Amino acid sequence: MQSLTIPRPDDWHLHLRDGAMLQTTVPATAAVFHRAVVMPNLVPPVTTVEAALTYRAQIMAEVPAGVRFNPLMALYLTADTTSEEIAQAAANQHVIGFKLYPSGATTNSAAGVKSVEALAPVLGAMQEHQVPLLVHGEVTDSDIDIFDRERVFIERHLIPITERFPNLKLVLEHITTADAVEFVKNANSNVAATMTPQHLLMNRNDLLVGGIRPHNYCLPILKRQSHQQALQQAALSGNPKFFLGTDSAPHVQASKETACGCAGCYSAPAAIELYAEFFSQHNALDKLADFASGYGADFYQLPRNTETIELVQQPWTVAETVDTATGPMVPYWAGADLQWKLRG
Ligand code: NCD
Ligand code: ZN
Description:
By secondary structure, this protein is α/β, with parallel strands linked by helices. It is 33% helix and 16% strand.
């Protein structure tokens, strides 16, 4: 049997939720990943270091015995975020950065930012304290087509931000377009991007052809194939600016399979195998280790993990549903096959 050993990976973009959902989401991610950047879009959002540490303790309470898992907390940037909070975040090893959600862009983003321009003082403080800015890069204007929202956000906001704050560390999260790839490639070394399994493995045909597939619906929405190919090329190129961030985003089945379904793909139960599937489809499994376990740590100036995991070439089928305390959930890739499996 073919096998592949890589350093233990980290997930640089993850939603765990809170309450009883943590009983499902924390063990699923901690089984594979050592560190994970935990997104703050709870209700209410996690806006302070204090709230993040309380949330982190709830997460740690669900880590199975004997498992080493290190959640790195992202705080939710709002119009009220202060320079003091940024200084506190910089001083706390459990806080990794601030997440910018344009108001209304995605799940639980109502408290997000309405004017990116008004953030200038806060971004200046983040640059000064070397606190990374994690960005959901989509405009929300009703007159901008949903498939263009990432490109327009880059033009209107990201290019000006990176020009004005060249020393600000910035991660464009879950990129979906050739425009995002070009932006990140052309920006200086303080700018990087995370990539999800669904945006590497799928395009909008997988969402809409033959019927609407709610479990492939996430934001930013899947784009046309040429954009998918640009993302694939970026991941396959071995450019260290592009690294793993699953954006695993759990929603129960009833919230996805409904007239107005939630955005988000719960990929955690098969996360590393999904990336292995992508790299193996392109005969590039040798690129998985740096993408999953190297470049993200390097960008955040954290040590690479020294433990390893082993993947074996052994076809398996992702479960149709996962039980949670709040009802069944349909994972991403449910009922479909993958060629590689985590051993153990
Ligand atoms: C995420 C969620 O459900 O919290 N959903 C998604 O479609 N990706 C939020 C986000 O990252 O946009
Ligand atoms: Zn997300």
